[in-house]
Amino acid sequence: MTPYLHKLRSQASALPPRAPARQIALAWLGGALAIACVANVAEVLSLGLLLGSFGASCVLVFGYPELPFSQPRNVLVGHLLSSLTGLLFLHLLGPQWWSLSLAVGSAIALMMLTRSVHPPAGSNPVIIFLALPGWDFLLFPTLFGGLLLIAVALLYNNATRGGRYPQYW
Residue of 15, 65, 146, 158 with fewest CB within 10 Å of its CB? Predict the structure, then answer.
C-alpha cells in the first residue's frame, strides 16, 4: 500500500464520547430558539435575515459555546468577512467557478489572518454565488441576522450554563 493510501486508513482511534443528554438538550433548544428568533424578526420586519450557514453556527454556539470558533467575535467577524469576500469576488470577477473557489480560499485566509475563524462562515461565498445577491446582503442577512443570533446566544448560554459566555470579545 502506498504511503498516501495508508494515511486514508485513519489512526483507528475510538469515536469521541457522546455528549451528555443535558448538553444535547440545551444545544437543541438553543438552536431552535435562535433560528425561531431570527426567522420571526425577519417575518415581522419583512427582511431577509436568515443565512443558510446560521444553522451550522448554531451547532457551534449552542453545542460547543466554549470553543474559539463559537465566540461572538468569531461568529460576527467571520460571517462579515466571508460575505464581503464572496460579494467582492462575485461582483469583480463574475459568477465563475474559479472566482468562487478563490472567494472561498480567500475567506478562509482572511478569517485566519484576523483570528476570527468561524467554520460555518466559510460557506457564505458559496451561498452568495448561488443566490447572486446585491451589496445589501452584508447588512441583511449577514450583519443583522448575525447580531440577532449572537444576542440569543448571549442570553441563552448565560442563563442555562454554569460557565461564562463569551470567553472573549
Answer: 15
